[in-house]
Amino acid sequence: MQRELVTHEKLSSLGLLAAGVAHEINNPMAFVTSNVRSLSRDLAAQEELPEELREYVDDVLPATLDGIRRVNAIVADLKRFARNDPEEPVEFDLNAEVSSALRLSQGERRGRCQVELELGELPPVMGQPRQIGQVVLNLLVNAVQAVPGQGGVVKVRTRAEEEEVVVEVRDNGVGMSKEVLGQLFQPFFTTKPVGEGTGLGLAVAYGIITGHGGRIEVESALGRGTCFTVRLPVAAEERVTTPLPPGEGRGEGL
Ligand code: ADP
Ligand code: MG
């Protein structure tokens, strides 16, 4: 449990840091965003444009705007992470988040490994769908980075289990030693070269899943592979409970 305490402590200092960084980036980014938008609008409206500027309108500015959107999305995530009471929780379908995480991981995979997807029938979960999607994406990216160049297989499975929904991300990659297993949820713990890993993926996943009242478990064998299992409670409305007397309960207070 000591380890969990340390993780919590580091996560809250990380929250403070994230809040500071988000705040500092926010204002200059708002300025950059609006300037680049008006520049591309104005240039696009020009009837006769020299060839060099045409390239800006067609390629450079759209790519710049993509970059800006990405930075803005990261800043929004940092703020949410820092606030710790993100958006209003909603009921959502975990399978939809798994599918979209899979699409987002395509860039990382670049056809490098095979992905097998098995979606079970699931009751809805309550919480922040985007955050849960982020967790699945972080697990997928790790799995893809862990598998060999040839013959790598990542299996993603969802299933319902009593009052929980479960998502499993399994790979046949490098696996982990006991030392690594002991530290992998620590913020900034990474075994990857600079530029490839920040060591934040699993710390963030841990924060998000425990924040949803769920658990994240890992099994790994060195040289054979790893399986991460995320368990989330089923939305309260969907749980099988003792029926309430007529006129009470369901739907009230919503
Ligand atoms: P990062 O991926 O940036 O290093 P993470 O928090 O996502 O940070 O992961 C921390 C460390 O845990 C990784 O550097 C790696 O050593 C280990 N790890 C995570 N997932 C896997 C996996 N599927 N297979 C092997 N090692 C893993
Ligand atoms: Mg990672």
From TrEMBL:
Top-level taxon of the source organism: Bacteria
GO molecular function list: ATP binding
Catalytic activity: ATP + protein L-histidine = ADP + protein N-phospho-L-histidine
Enzyme Commission code(s) on record: 2.7.13.3
Claim: Endoplasmic reticulum is one of the keywords in the record: no
Annotated keywords: ATP-binding, Membrane, Nucleotide-binding, Phosphoprotein, Transmembrane, Transmembrane helix
Top EC group: transferase
Domain (Histidine kinase): residue spans on this chain: 20-236
Name this polypeptide is given: histidine kinase
Parent-protein start and end of this portion: 194 to 447 of 466
